[in-house]
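thread: overnight batch results

M.L. [08:02]
morning all. the overnight job finished for the chain we discussed friday. pasting input first so we're all looking at the same thing
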Amino acid sequence: MKQFIKSVLFILLIVWLTASKVYALDAQQVYKKVQKSIYTLYGIHAQKNRPVALGSAVAITKNILATNCHVALAGHYLVLKVGNQYKTARVVYHNRRQDLCLVEVPGMQFTSVPIRQSKKVAIGEDVVAIGNPAGLEKTLSKGIISNIHRARGSVLLQTDASVSRGSSGGGLFDNKGNLIGIITLKLRRADDIALAIPTEWVLSALAHEPNKVDYTKPPTSASAAPSQATRIGTYGRDKIILMKRDNKCVFSAVGYDRANQLQFEALWSPNYRGFMMFFPLNLASQRIIRDSIFGPIKRDQIKMYGRTRNQLRLENKNYAILYYQKLDTTRPALITKIKNKLNPILTKQSHFIVRMYDPHSLNKFTNVRFGLDGLAAAIKSYQQHCK
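M.L. [08:03]
and the structure it wrote out:
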């Protein structure tokens, strides 16, 4: 009987060891499993029209990517490289203390990775890091978990897998292809040490409503803060929006490129004659909308500082688009000034075009079309609710 039990235990041990080896993947298999979920992310400086931050991002759901805030919030807007195309991205969640940002590209879906809790990772486990060091896309490096450090209710994973500038925001994976951390930094004076943000922080961020600002959403109660904008209505095929806050109203139209990708938002208000502002669809622009458009802005509070290569095409005329910055903000937006009132001009047009400088396109410019179907109805609503 004892011999029989020993034989059964031996067979079970062999089966378990065999199953473990089969279930574990080598680095090449892990790479094939997750490489479609790794993207290159650029933080763009609007005035200089060039990247000021380079990093990586990992698809954690079909709509959301995780990355580092020191990449996502470095520029004035974000660009995600998808294949051979560049898409404007926006931040939907940020926690600078954790260096964790969540990013989306409106209308795009991704292949997400499976996620494993960092707390369950052990020192000595084999891992692979996949990112874009120095812009070399989807680069793989192998290593182990060399140490684990307690950090704000979870752990930071230390690895000796090779990372460098551009790897930030990339994924750290176990030998089954599970995401176990987001690469955040390489320690100075230590070529073989890097740290990864725990997946518990990522899962916690996903579990809560992203802290993006939805300035078109009506207040949920009469006690809503007076700084919250309400949407009076959406009009026409082009979904022109009329918003109001503190007795001030603003019109909104969105612009699409030739690939029908949402790129920019244009805002203007009869309260500020001739001014039209343009914002990349990201968190930084929404902050400026909140602080500037609806705030007690005065013309002497606007600091103009430079001409862009972008142009507004309206009534067969080209208007220069400048940078501006309100004194109490740190991020610039784009603005153009037309001598006459905008609504009488715009109601005669079916659309207007903004030629945005794009160093990645063949002709160096991308035409962004703003449709105006619905503006007449929005103006009528303006006369009822805003005067």
